[in-house]
Amino acid sequence: MPCKETIPSFDLRRNYARVEGEIKETLERVLSSAQFILGPDVAAFEKEANAYLEAHRSVSVASGTDALILALMALGIKPEDEVITTPFSFFATASCISRMGAVPVFADVEPDSYNISMPLARDAVTSKTKAFLPVHIFGQMCCLEDISDFLRERGIAVLEDCAQAFGAHRRVGSKIIRAGAWGEIGALSFFPTKNLGAFGDAGMVTCATDELADRIERLRVHGSVSTYLHEEIGINSRMDTIQAAILRVRLRHIETWTEERREAARRYGLLFAERELGEFVTPPAVTEGNRHTYHQYVVRAARRDELQKFLGERGITTRVYYPLALHLQPCFKYLGYKKGDFPAAESLTEEALALPMFPELTPEEQERTVDAIAEFYKR
Fold first, then answer.
1. Which helix (H) or strand (E) holds 171?
2. Helix H or strand E segment including 251
3. How far apart are the C-alpha atoms of 190 and 115, rounded to whole Å?
4. Beta-bridge partners for 204
5. How many angstroms from the chain centroid is the CA of residue 184?
6. From 205's CA, which of 112, 179, 222, 370 has a CA 20 to 30 Å away?
7. Residue 1: its pLDDT value, please?
8. Which residues contact 65 (CB under 8 A, 6 or more apart)?
9. CB within 8 A of 169, min separation 6: which ones?
């Protein structure tokens, strides 16, 4: 059958077209200034993003991976310290722990929210546990109130991996807490495909204290406090001025784009119900109290790989996040985990499928996607 126009999983070109004039004006200003590393735009973006996140203080860095590494460094994580995290996440979540010489300790996830299980994380705590690294996966926050007091009593720091959750928040009682403003420290990514994406690599660390923020600011410039004077050994992780300037433009639109994502997610749910696909496809659950920002719209699908191939043949692009759980990655064999240790995460690696999701996704494209899914299951 002839393919219609391809539906991408994400379309940067459509999004750029909405802010093209603002971006070009901003780039011309930065290029004319000839200031390309740190500078006023970086400082301004830090303040503007920090105000949006409602964090104590935020420090820009070169990438989301660097944000995790610098956060672990600032927390003083040492070789053989244990850091509890999820086996269902992007590789950097666990690899950054290992790069510090520390030990990633995994706890299984919730099958409906895909986030790390707080009771299982609590069970994984030992005398060697120094930090808890939850991931707000796909744009939905973990229920940190279920474990915060327990960790605090034991002096265990919370490092939030917010790479996929910019703009997400959680209501606990009468209080709203934004992703990145809950724990001692948080790590954000502005990779181009993120909800708030740069035009290259960029990241940020949110800090609950000035002491942590001051240390991140030193560590991101080789541990330097002034030119050629180094208090400690850091890394080179400064944000480019161009990226900060672009992010400042895009930050002004983030709420509109987030609500468009949320509307697209609502529409997917209605379409699945109308096509009576509940037997085959499970939409992502939203935990009560959460504002889900849908960095990805990930369903659980029967015969996932066959479905993905079928959709691809019809010009519908989907993604698998993630095909192999972290505890089964060859490089983590030394940790001693085996298949079957984390059944919920392993099940997700076989069933999770990310459908097209971006602010400019049209209702017609969503209908075409869900119609194709219905065709696959009901043929």
1. strand 169-172
2. helix 241-251
3. 21
4. 60, 188
5. 18
6. 112
7. 43
8. 92, 96, 189, 203
9. 141, 176, 177, 178, 179, 290, 291
130 domain residue, yes or no: yes
Task: Return d(Cα 256, Cα 118) in angstroms, integer.
Answer: 32
CB atoms near residue 199 (< 10 Å): 18
What percent of the chain has pLDDT above 90?
Answer: 97
> Which token pair is 333?
């064999």
Domain coverage including residue 362: 254-378
DSSP output for 267-324: HHHHHHHHTT-TTTEEPPP--TTEE---SSEEEEETTHHHHHHHHHHTTB--B-S-SS
Q: Domain count for the chain, please give it.
A: 2
The per-residue pLDDT for 2 is 45
| SS3 of residue 138 by DSSP | helix
CATH number, residue 133: 3.40.640.10
Q: What is the pLDDT of residue 4?
A: 76
Q: Show Cβ contacts of residue 280 under 8 Å, excluding neighbours closer than 6 positions.
A: 301, 302, 373, 377
The contacts of residue 121 (CB under 8 Å, 6+ apart) are 84, 107, 132, 134, 147
Whole-angstrom distance between the N-terminal and C-terminal Cα of the chain? 15
Instruction: Report d(CA 375, CA 285) in Å as an integer.
Output: 24
DSSP one-letter code for 146? G
- Token duo for residue 331: 């490089």
> Per-residue confidence at 3, pLDDT binned at 50, 70, 90?
low
Instruction: Give me the residue label for tokens 């080789």.
Output: 222
Confirm if 211 and 186 have CB atoms less than 8 A apart.
no
> Which residues make beta-bridge pairs with 354?
298, 319
Answer yes or no: do 94 and 186 share one domain.
Answer: yes
* Euclidean distance between CA atoms 268 and 278, whole angstroms: 12
Residues in the chain: 379
- The pLDDT of residue 379: 85
103-106 vs 82-85, strand pairing mode? parallel
Q: What is the mean pLDDT of residues 196-201?
A: 98
3-state secondary structure of 59: strand
Q: Are residues 170 and 32 in the same domain?
A: yes
In the prediction, which pLDDT does 225 show?
Answer: 87
Q: Which residue, of 251, 269, 297, is where some domain finishes? A: 251
Contact call for residues 9 and 356 (beta carbons, < 8 A): yes
H/E element, 352 = strand 352-355
